[in-house]
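Working notes for the structural subgroup meeting. M.R. asked for a predicted model of this chain before we commit to crystallization trials. I am recording the input and output together here so anyone reviewing the notebook later can reproduce the run.

Input as submitted:
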Amino acid sequence: MSATTVARRYGKSLLSLSKDQNAVDVVEQDMRALIQAAKENRELSVILASPVVRPEKKEAIVRSVFSGANELTVSFLALLAKKGRAGLIADMAEAFVSLVREERGVVLAEVVTAVPLDEARRAEINALIGKVHEGGVELSETVDPHLIGGFKLRVGDRMIDASVFQSLRTMHRNLTNNPYEPAY
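Returned structure, recorded in token form:
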């Protein structure tokens, strides 16, 4: 069984537990903080995934690092560490947030632009996504100066590439693949 499948199952379990205790919003905030901590702190991810570190030590690390989180979150993460699944904690957190998004009908949209978005552009992109998806939108923004201008928008498996870089690339391809042969 793949790690993604296992992480998703643990995410479903945590979602079910948090629903039973009416703590979905609090646990979601904890999971988002955990995802951010895993991205920013590579050492934490390496220690949790290491087969050399004993499960008891991983459990103590999890309890120490996430001591400010909800008790349900801390207990669940400690249980994962104790059972030897600490390496899946970040993936499980991603799966949990994804499941909460699915349940609420919110779609994750990723936009890449050459410059940071202002509120007017953000509203235009939300309106564009609203034409494709009827639920809420969680917009993830990235700045990539290589685009020169325009944007790339990914919503699920759909992508719109309206960047100047892509337009120039298409124009170059069209000009170099021109079948025109002069008649001499």
